[in-house]
Amino acid sequence: MYRLLKQEGSARRGEFQTVHGTVQTPAFMNVATAGAIKGAVSAYDLKNLDCQVQLCNTYHLHLRPGDETVKKLGGIRNFTRWSGPVLTDSGGFQVFSLAKLRNITEAGVTFASHIDGHKIFMGPEESMRIQSNLGSTIAMAFDECVENPAEYGYAKASCERTTRWLERCKTEMKRLNAAEGTINPQQLLFGINQGCTFEDLRVEHMKNIAEMDLDGYAIGGLAVGEPTHEMYRIIETVEPYMPRNKIRYLMGVGTPANILEAVHRGVDLFDCVMPSRNARHGHAFTSLGCRNLLNAKYELDEAPLDETCDCPTCRGFSRAYLHHLFKAGEMLAMRLTVMHNLYFYNNLMKKIRNALDAGNYEEFYRSNREPLGKRI
């Protein structure tokens, strides 16, 4: 259940209560694709990095080790040893981004595994069953993520099909939650708004899915190559039609500056692989902007990554040491920088919440939007 505590402009401060714990929002979900953060970071590490929610990938866990295997091992939380809430995506995005050959019908999608090419069928019911086996706190509805730019007619038909799929997801989840042996009988369902960058499709689709009274609502199909101003325009278009008393999730976004802008426009929840992916390539987010640790200027720099940061990496290691680790190809370089970036994101969310609590988010937003978007 989502509780709106206060609002400043469109920016919202809230709490999201789940069977696995209460999430303070706005919040960032740390992406553990196959049950672990890439860069050798475990669930135990996440607890020390102020993580609130772990996000795991339905498609990847279905392929390896298999959702039935995870169920036999007690579900994704027991499997990974993460004690807090877990969100699993539906697999829809991976079907459309990773599968080279796919056939979409009303029933669902037939596609080839990106691992070994074997054929897989996934529709709304299959996605719900996989996520039920994983036992996540929140399951995402199965949807079609259409590429931008898209042809209007196809985008319209896709939205209508996604709505019909959502109805099937809701029916199947109700059945699964009542079934004997279900790991999490209180699993929550989020619907996903689609419609590419067409304002009328976005609004109509949001109106339709809002009527279903789901546990939360996501904006999908953005941050997939369209200009940033287009993403902000769509958020502003959709936001007035999103239920005020339900949590709002912007999928796959983004940079610290993106998050600051999206909170300003009324979003509560975020996820993105960017902090861990960029870290593995030597890019560290800081309060002054993004540092490239491969640059020679850090060779003799004894300062921490961010002098205002209290993460384990900044407390213990210098830019010079991290620069050396990357140049030497040491795995520790990735681990330490991933830990810093995740802490930075989670701490940024805490600062945003504190600003909202104090009633000065507008000031925080205006003073941080430029430095957070810089490359040092």
Describe the structure.
With 376 residues, this protein is α/β, with parallel strands linked by helices. It is built from 15 helices and 16 strands. It has helices at residues 43-47, 58-63, 67-72, 76-80, 92-98, 124-134, 152-178, 199-210, 228-238, 256-264, 274-280, 312-316, 319-327, 331-358, 361-372, and strands spanning 2-8, 11-18, 21-25, 27-31, 53-57, 86-89, 102-104, 109-112, 119-122, 138-140, 188-193, 216-219, 247-250, 269-271, 283-286, 289-292. The chain has an eight-stranded parallel β-barrel, surrounded by four helices. The protein has a three-stranded antiparallel β-sheet with strand order 1-2-3. The chain has a three-stranded antiparallel β-sheet with strand order 7-8-9. Strand 4 (27-31), helix 1 and strand 5 form a beta-alpha-beta unit. Helix 6 (124-134) crosses helix 7 (152-178). The mean pLDDT is 96.
Structural class: alpha/beta
Number of H/I helices = 15
Number of E-state strands? 16
Distance between the termini: 41 Å
Average of pLDDT: 96
Bin the strand percentage: 15-25%
What is the makeup of the main sheet?
8 strands, parallel, barrel
Low-pLDDT stretches are none
Helical fraction: 40-55%
Shape: globular
Major sheet strand order: 4-5-6-10-11-12-13-14
CA radius of gyration: 20 Å
Pathway: tRNA modification; tRNA-queuosine biosynthesis
Catalytic activity: 7-aminomethyl-7-carbaguanine + guanosine(34) in tRNA = 7-aminomethyl-7-carbaguanosine(34) in tRNA + guanine
EC number: 2.4.2.29
Protein name: Queuine tRNA-ribosyltransferase
